[in-house]
Structure formats: structure tokens, C-alpha cells
Amino acid sequence: xxxxxxxxxxxxxxxxxxxxxxxxxxxxxxxxxxxxxxxxxxxxxxxxxxxxxxxxxxxxxxxxxxxxxxxxxxxxxxxxxxxxxxxxxxxxxxxxxxxxxxxxxxxxxxxxxxxxxxxxxxxxxxxxxxxxxxxxxxxxxxxxxxxxxxxxxxxxxxxxxxxxxxxxxxxxxxxxxxxxxxxxxxxxxxxxxxxxxxxxxxxxxxxxxxxxxxxxxxxxxxxxxxxxxxxxxxxxxxxxxxxxxxxxxxxxxxxxxxxxxxxxxxxxxxxxxxxxxxxxxxxxxxxxxxxxxxxxxxxxxxxxxxxxxxxxxxxxxxxxxxxxxxxxxxxxxxxxxxxxxxxxxxxxxxxxxxxxxxxxxxxxxxxxxxxxxxxxxxxxxxxxxxxxxxxxxxxxxxxxxxxxxxxxxxxxxxxxxxxxxxxxxxxxxxxxxxxxxxxxxxxxxxxxxxxxxxxxx
Length: 457
Ligand SMILES: O=C(O)Cc1cc(O)ccc1O
Ligand SMILES: [Fe+2]
Known about the structure:
Layout: H1 13-17, E1 21-23, E2 29-32, E3 53-58, E4 71-76, E5 87-88, E6 112-114, E7 130-138, E8 143-152, E9 159-163, E10 167-174, E11 177-181, E12 184-188, E13 192-196, E14 201-205, E15 211-219, E16 242-245, E17 253-263, E18 266-274, E19 279-284, E20 289-292, E21 313-318, E22 325-332, E23 335-337, E24 354-361, E25 376-379, H2 389-398, E26 405-407, E27 411-417, E28 422-423, H3 425-429, H4 439-442
Parallel strand pairs: 9-17
Antiparallel strand pairs: 1-16, 2-19, 3-4, 4-19, 5-18, 6-25, 7-8, 7-28, 8-15, 9-14, 10-13, 10-15, 11-12, 11-14, 13-20, 16-20, 17-18, 21-22, 22-27, 23-26, 24-25, 24-27
The structure holds 2-(3,6-dihydroxyphenyl)acetic acid and fe (ii) ion.
GO molecular function: homogentisate 1,2-dioxygenase activity; metal ion binding
GO cellular component, one term: cytoplasm
GO biological process, one term: L-tyrosine catabolic process
């Protein structure tokens, strides 16, 4: 082990609570778990310090413009290539999809809502606990996204996952994740998110047992901080609150270590006799990172009308069209509502973008019931939606004189995409699908009066 804090068995809670991190977003970081392990002045010396192997991981093409280019260098005990061949993982895992077409998934404009899933009945690790709900495009064509959810109760042991298809953004809803990566370790609790970019190997330990959450995956693009436009130079998610791991390594023998590689949505395994977490030092700007959503600095209405939710964008994975995202990650955090003579909840709307929502804790401001922590909803391109009847009626009943009110103890989020999602079998066949979802709006009555005097009785 690299230090007394290692606790590689994965159960040393204090060590995981007190892990060191490197702060910043998009930085060119350097980190060494042994002083002098990073070569000086070059990336690939003939002999690296401590006899380490140099290995690059590229997250963008070699020739991507400098401002977009992402790559890192690792100095490791053995290079990643030291493994037996990849074979399809058996038994096959049918629940992950990364090509969205007629044979894998269905189209529907219906408003969809899912109840939270129960804990798995059999021991299930993070990999086996993942299932795809919806998505669009193709990992092979490097364009699109997938939305997965997970429910797991078992830690990964001597096994690492590697997603060759895209970047994972994980939103834990229940249970902490202790994640080993090639760049170091991260504790990620509900209320935090973690991004594991394409190609990084990682292993998930579940210190709290039963765990569940949401995962968005983007193909051919990476998450970045949104422009702030007229907001100015500060606000929303601040670069300094993003945390990358500090170098840490495992030099123990691990006969029978398994790498599970997701490639085109299918899973392959390869055996090796060492841990992939054998990187003694690294540098670069292609890194895993986490972010605590409570650090978000929201901007909102201070006089009239409900602003568009884009004002609460934490991260965006852009398409090639300016202002159009393959996937935005947007949150609805605690905040004050102060607008005057305004319908304060989200407006009724239809959107050319598609909106997948999840709830980490609390209640969502547009739904008085039915949208539960751990549940999800999907309102696709141009599908009408908005506050349910109870929320509408309660808002109107409060009247014009509603003073400042605080939305507290809640954290909902949205994955919003310009690409229309197709729904995977789990999403439509699931017993968790709420077939009565549409009922939440059916009670909205007409208050129309041709006299034009009293809009509501
Ligand atoms: O539909 C939703 O609940 C998400 C949403 C929230 C909001 O405040 C404004 C628009 C919007 O789509
Ligand atoms: Fe919406």
C-alpha cells in the first residue's frame, strides 16, 4: 500500500472521509503519491522515476483545438495493456443500451413517471445494478446520450469498470459511493455528483449497503461549465468547488483481477494479475471529479415571472450547435421565491428539448405528490407538462399577497437534451411505471369567464 491511510479493503471509513482532493475545473493538475514520481520536463523519459511506465489517456482527439483538448499522463507500476484478451461477459447483461433504434427501444410522446425501485433482492454490484431507461443516438457514432439508473447492494471486489462509450455523470440518491479510480479515491455522498470520463477505470464500494441513483452518459462530448452570459463572472457552480482525486496507488498482488469494459453498450471482461489502481503519479486535464450540489449559487427571479431552468445549469455537454446541449445537468436547489403577482411554480410548457428528471431528496415544487425521491419522470420533445392540479390550486389559493417563501430541504435535477430519447424495455415494462401519471393534470379546471372579471372563483 502507498500509505497508512490506504485501507484498501475499502472499509476504512475515516480514510475515505478525509481523503485529499485537488480543487478546480479544467485545470492542468499534477499529483504524486510518491515524491519525485512525476518525470520532470518531459512526459515519456526513457526510464521513468521508480521504474514506472508512462501511459497517456486521451479524452479528445490528438488534434482537438487546445481549448477543448483533454488528456492526462499516468505513471504506473504496470501499463494497462498487461491483461488477457477481452471476452464477452457471461452471463450477458441485457440491461445496458448505447445504440438507440427500433430494435433496442421505443418511441412515445407520453408523459412518463417512475416510482422508486426497491433494493435488489440478490447481491448486486454497481455494474449489475445499472439499467438503461432511455437515450438517443449511438456510442459508436460518438453522438448521443443514455440515461441509466442503478440499484445495488454489493461492493465490487477485485473488479474495475471501464466505460469506453462515454462519460458517466453519477447522481447518487441513496448510499455513499467509495470510488477508486486510477487517479485516486473519492467519497461521493447523496447530494454530490461525480463525473467519470470515458475510459477511466473505476471500482465502486458501497459502505452503506443498499444504494441507488441516476447516471447520465454522453457520447462524443464532455461536460463543461456553462457560460454565464449576463450573470457575469461569478455564480452557479464555481470552478473551485470541483474536486479531483489525489494520486494513490495499490501495489499489492491481485491474482484474478477483472476489468469489465463497456464497449458499444456490451460488456466484455479481461483478466489481469494486478489492480488497475497502480498509478503512482499523474498529470493532465482529463480527470474524474466530484461536486457538492449544496455549493451551487443559484440565480433567480427577484421581481416577476418564473425564469427558464437553464439558469440553474451545473454542467453542460455541448453539441456542435451553439447553445444546444447533448445533455445539460440542471438542478432545482433550495432558494427563496420572492416574485410579485407571479405564478411562482414552473410554468406550463412544451419544449423542443427533452426533459428527464430525478429527485434526490424532498419534494419537487411542481408536483404535490407522486414524484418521489429515487423516482423519475420524462417529458419528451413537445410533450406538454407542468405543475399538477394540487400545486396549481394551492398556488392560486395563496393569492397575490404571497410573501417571500423559501423552498427548503429539496434537491431535484433534470437531464435535458436536444436529442429525443427512445425508451428502453425496462422503462415501459417496469412495474414501477406510474400508469396514472396523466391523472395529475386531468383535474385542472377551466376558470375561463367571458365576462373577464373574476378569473378564479
Ligand atoms: O418541467 C419541469 O418541471 C422542469 C422545469 C422547471 C422549471 O422551473 C421551468 C421549466 C421546466 O421545464
Ligand atoms: Fe419542463
